[in-house]
Amino acid sequence: MSALEEQFVTEARELILQATDNLIALERDGGPERVDSVFRAFHTLKGSAGVVELPAMSIMLHAAEDLLDSVRHGTHGAGAEIVDAALACLDQVSRWVDNFEAAGALPSRAGEDGRAMAERLRSLLPGRTGEQSVLPAPDRLKEGGRGALPEWVSHLIAAERDAMTSRMPDGPMLATAISYEPLAGCFYNGDDPLQLMQQLPDLLAFHIEPREPFVPLADIDPYTCNLRLRAISAANRDEIASIFRLVPDQIQIFGVPPEALPAAAKHITPSELSLVQKVIEAQCELLRVPGRTDGLAGCVGAAARVAENALRHGRHLHLADTVGRAGALALAQHDAGPLLSALEATLAAFASFPSTMVPDGDGRPNTTATSERPTDRVLRVSEAKIEALVNLTGELVVARNALSYSIRQFDKDLGREVARSIQRDRDAIDRLVTELHSTVLQLRMVPVAQLFGSFPRLVRDVARQLHKKVELVTHGETAEVDKTIMDRLFEPMVHLVRNAVDHGVEDPEQRRAAGKSEAATISIAASRSGDRLLVEVTDDGRGIDPAVVRRTASEKLILSPEELTALTDEEVVDLVFAAGFSTASSVSDISGRGIGMDVVRTAIEQIGGRVSLESKVGIGTTVRLDLPTTIAMSRIMVVEAGGQSFGIAMDSVSETVRVKPDRVSTIKNNDGFVFRDRVVPIISLAELMNLPGHKRDAAQSRLLVVMETAGRSAAFEIDAIRDRLDVVLKPMQGLLAGARGYAGTTLLGNGQVLLVLDVKEILP
Amino acid sequence: MTVRRSDTGTVILDGVCAVEDAEPLLQMLQATPAAVVDWTQCRQLHTAVLQIIMASGVDPIEPCGDTWVRQWLASKLPLKQVG
Question: Is the CB of A720 inside 8 Å of chain B's CB atoms?
Answer without folding.
Answer: no
